[in-house]
């Protein structure tokens, strides 16, 4: 198989959740630029329209379509999956990506105690919201992906956006974020075992600090940004576009024997002992 054939996704049917901004948008863009037909789902309709307009103006090879969907709404998400499968002729690649930040943790980047982020101050509604979007909605999305891919019987690739927070608790990102991402990474392993026999591959992308909307708020804070730069082996945070080659790899036949993997892309940040923070 030539290198071109390995990475070829032309004509594939792709769905991306949380695609109006950030990493989701980058996943959609790389796939459509390589000729895949991509549907972008997002809760933010205005930004989704802007993103679709910009993507179409950039002369992609594939089609891009969008729908406003809240991934926590199971019925609406299921309906969106049906519509995409109908319009795009099934589903080959699903990015379960939508997520939110979890506010401040119990430490600041300078190691000072942050009273608002401590467990006794944690608002239960905040916990429920972050777990609901960052874990349960990934489950909702992966479940629908599995159902569609099994029924159509031609395999597929399911890619969940986890985080280095799945393995690495820094104290600085709000507490509910860590168990949510650990849950996503374990869900990926469990589903890889379950779905392998249907040639459905399931992998996690585990980013470190990328400049997106989520991280934008955090990194607009000079102390936070400087801390990430200091902790990274490469001495910088990542541009959103740097996620694209990994997304294309996992979506395509180039990763045909890769499943259950936790693909860390973090500039080496995870190598720092947590005590240094
Ligand atoms: P982002 O805020 O730029 O994009 C997230 C998108 O998800 C937004 O367009 C938002 O509108 C959408 N969204 C939020 N809640 C939704 C809902 N209920 N239904 C549908 N859409 C919803 O952030 P991002 O950094 O691109 O985040 C994407 C994923 O990457 C998240 O799962 C995040 O946890 C993960 N991640 C990001 C980083 C980073 O540094 N940026 C690091 C590790 C993991």
Automatic annotation (TrEMBL):
Superkingdom classification of source: Bacteria
InterPro entries referenced in this protein's UniProt entry, alphabetically: NAD(P)-bd_dom_sf (IPR036291), SDR_fam (IPR002347)
Database matches in Pfam families: adh_short_C2 (PF13561)
One Gene Ontology MF term: oxidoreductase activity
Keywords associated with the record: Oxidoreductase
Family, as annotated: Belongs to the short-chain dehydrogenases/reductases (SDR) family.
Protein name per its UniProtKB record: NAD(P)-dependent dehydrogenase, short-chain alcohol dehydrogenase family
Organism (species): Pseudooceanicola antarcticus
């Amino acid at each position: 198989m030539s290198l071109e054939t390995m990475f070829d996704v032309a004509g594939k049917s792709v769905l991306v959740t949380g695609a109006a901004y950030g990493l989701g948008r980058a996943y959609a863009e790389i796939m459509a630029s390589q000729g895949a037909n991509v549907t972008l789902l997002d809760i933010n309709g205005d930004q989704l329209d802007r993103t679709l307009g910009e993507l179409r103006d950039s002369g992609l090879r594939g089609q891009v379509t969008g729908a406003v969907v809240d991934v926590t709404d199971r019925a609406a998400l299921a309906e969106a999956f049906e519509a995409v499968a109908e319009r795009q002729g099934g589903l080959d690649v699903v990015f379960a990506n939508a997520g939110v930040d979890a506010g401040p943790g119990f430490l600041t980047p300078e190691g000072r105690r942050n009273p608002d982020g401590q467990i006794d101050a944690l608002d239960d509604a905040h916990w429920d919201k972050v777990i609901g979007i960052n874990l349960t909605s990934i489950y909702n999305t992966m479940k629908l992906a599995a159902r569609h891919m099994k029924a159509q019987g031609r395999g597929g690739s399911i890619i969940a956006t986890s985080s280095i927070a799945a393995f690495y608790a820094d104290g600085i990102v709000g507490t509910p974020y860590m168990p949510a991402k650990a849950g996503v990474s374990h869900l990926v392993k469990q589903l890889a075992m379950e779905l392998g026999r249907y040639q459905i591959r399931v992998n996690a992308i585990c980013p470190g600090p990328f400049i997106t909307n989520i991280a934008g708020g955090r990194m607009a804070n000079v102390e936070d940004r400087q801390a990430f730069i200091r902790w990274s082996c490469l001495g910088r945070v990542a541009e959103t576009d740097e996620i694209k080659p990994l997304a294309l790899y996992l979506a395509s036949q180039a990763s045909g024997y890769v499943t259950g993997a936790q693909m860390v892309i973090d500039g080496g940040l995870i190598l720092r002992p947590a005590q240094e923070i």
